[in-house]
Structure of Metal dependent phosphohydrolase:
Amino acid sequence: MTRLDQQFAFLAEAEKLKSVTRATPIHDASRPENSGEHSWSLALYALVLADHAPEGVDVNRAIRMLLLHDLVEIDVGDVPIHSQNGAAHGAPEIAAAEARAAERIFGLLPQEQGAALLDLWHEFEANESADAIFAKSLDRVQPVLLNHLSGGGSWVEYDVQFGQLESRVGQKIARGLPGVWDWVKAKVEPWFAARDRV
């Protein structure tokens, strides 16, 4: 195969991300979001919220991470963070399946290009570098806002309590974007309070 054959093989495989259904609905609750839409949305979040990135963050690098981070869902599917059934989000067996998927998918590219993108994917997953922490925080913000816009979305389906949201998601957002989490919390906490009063 030529270099171009390999690159287009990878791009054709990446199109499959548009067929992966997520737990979070789109803004108007008319249907679930797909993982391709999620990745595009996160790249836009990074671009627009760049001025909130901590000092030293390379926003363009974070955007590359966000465009790549969920490609493994082509093989593994979406594992909702609030799901109570089946394999849990972040479980060792899920992490191992995602690592195998990353090797396969990035392995479609020419060797040096695939290795560089695989390294970027591993950096995002490790969530230790400033770029990865910023990107991972955005990955947690976007579903929260979609659930809020859609009237509760997957929070209703999984009977999520605000304490769960704060511990599973809020702390991760606050790690890289504390001011953004404060803003988001002020928007969503009243929704939970109103629901709990009913």
